[in-house]
Amino acid sequence: MIVWNGSIIAQIAYFVSLGLLAVLSHQPYLRAIHYVLACILVAIEGTLTAFLEWVLKIPEKWAGGNKKLVIFWQYTKLSTIPVSVFVIFFLIFKVANPIFSTFTDTLGVKLAHWAGKFFENMEILHILFVLLGAFGLGVLLYDWRVGKFWKFDESKEETYIMRKRIKVAQPLIYPIKMFALKNEYRIGIMLMAMVNVLFVVVNVIDVHFLWLGDSMFLCLTLVGLITLLLKIKDKKTSYFLLKVSGWAVYTMLILMSLVDWDILIVTHNIEHYKQLSNKRKEIDIAFLLLMADKTLPILQAHRKELPLTPEDSQKLAMRIHYFLKTQAKYSFWSWTYEEEQAVLSLRKDLYKVEIK
Question: What is the residue range of 95's domain?
């Protein structure tokens, strides 16, 4: 779906799936997503800790038996907290004192100029990209096996042990008649019945106006209600509730990635606007102009039907110009089907304008 529409939801679903694949490959015992996410956090923390420990040991290895270098490195590590506090107060003084701010700005420009000359032949972004990639590989490929997670997961039962009734050892000081208890029970039943009738009415309204109105997010609510019903009916644990809900959210994320929401939103808004009467015609052009670039051909095709101001028309033209200019610089690795179709459509439209 990233290759097809390149949507943000598809990208999020990809990274979530990659994390699930990495953790479940190392620890196939896990069954609940919330434990998988916890293992990912542990893997990130473990990779970062291992990297920092490796970096901190480098100077000691270089120092060898040189006591002066060892002492210097020890003081360097000790100075971490004082330097951090100094930076905080430095920023406070810079904001509070204009003269100090001007002085530091001048000094900062000189340091930046010197650093620019020093790194002019080095591509810093590429170096950072390689380091980030190495860190990501460490998180995904190294088996940061944390036994307590999968053991904790395995130990979680999904069914409650039958509750035992605890009898009161001593009699009540103020005895209550059984008739009064029955009346309270009946009142409680009546109250629950009336409240549930209200809930049914509200839910029917929601189903009619929201579910049938193309709203597929409430499916998660339905799954949650069914899961909660099963939890109560079959005496399931909260672990069961979290496990099922986690996989339901992940499934919904994958299903959402199958839809290009930007194109759907723009198309729906324009069609709805065209169906309105003249007295009720209203559409949020500013909102539509914030949608993804692949929606530009739709806006361009309906530009005469939409109430575009001169500023809106200029903004649309500028977005089309920059979109085509940016796409021309991209390689195969940035290709998506829908953006390619948008480019072809816009170029075709511009070609017709030039012919006219």
Answer: 8-155
